[in-house]
Amino acid sequence: MTGKWSTVPGTVVSAKFYANDTSNNWASGSQVNFLLNTYAVILSANQTGLTQEDTLLINVNVNKNGMPFSSYLINASKDGILFLNNQTMSFTDKEVNASMHTYTTASLYDIDAGENVTFTTNTLNVIWAKSVYNVILSANETSLTQGDIVRIDLAVTKNGLFFTNYLANLSRDGSFFFKNATSSLNDLETTAIGHTYNVLSLYDAATGQTVTFSANTLIVDWAEAAPTPTPTPTLTPTPSPAPTITPSTKPTTTPTSSPKPTPTPSPTTTPSPKPTTTVTPSPNSNQVELPTAALICIAVVAIRGVVVTLLLFTRKLKIKK
Known about the structure:
Elements: E1 12-20, E2 26-35, E3 39-45, E4 55-64, E5 67-69, E6 72-78, E7 81-87, E8 90-94, E9 99-110, E10 115-117, E11 120-121, E12 124-128, E13 133-139, E14 149-158, E15 161-163, E16 166-172, E17 175-181, E18 184-188, E19 194-204, E20 209-211, E21 214-215, E22 218-221, H1 285-320
């Protein structure tokens, strides 16, 4: 007996042998059962929190006759189209846009047997959900008054993670205000007024898509500035001149010289008329010596007075120094 009777895995093919003896009697012989190998391919993936731009790992598990089997190659299809050739263990896929795909096993090759085999497999459906975007507007309005510049900050999250690769358009009081904002922008008001800011649209530069998002509304108020006080003229008192203190001059002691004695003129002899000759007696020797002694005494006294005066003046000068 030759030939393939069935290709259904697990089907039992039995063969029973008979023998014919010389008397043309048939005797039953032994029976042999043939069991085809069974293969099962299981595809699986963890899709928890899967969103667009995420990479998905798809696991491949193969059983042969109910036991794990690794000596194989598979071809996989996505949405009915051949996707990957000769894969083992696992493969990956990624979607930029929110979408769903169906994965199946197209063929299975048993490396040990050297042939493509029949198998059972499952179908794996994978969904990439839309990314979730959130925009938060904020500003520091502390002490904001007319004439001040306010900085409006944008904070964007994508699937709960901080995200910077975006462009945002903003409105102010319901009218278009700012195009392609990133990170922050400034606004200025010269009057006391309030404005309301909103995000009109959000563009994800990584996916090249304008996306849906949630955002808050920001209200900014410019308070009226306090009037500038008029400066009051300050009366500057004219300082009175400081009294000038004139140092008292040191008394100067001028030595007073004693007056020199006036010499007594010598007596004049008047000649008598010729008829009468009057002879004036000449002074005697004692009369001549008295005036001379008096002059000497006066000179000595004067010199001592000068010396004493000079000594007193010199002492006063030393004491003052």
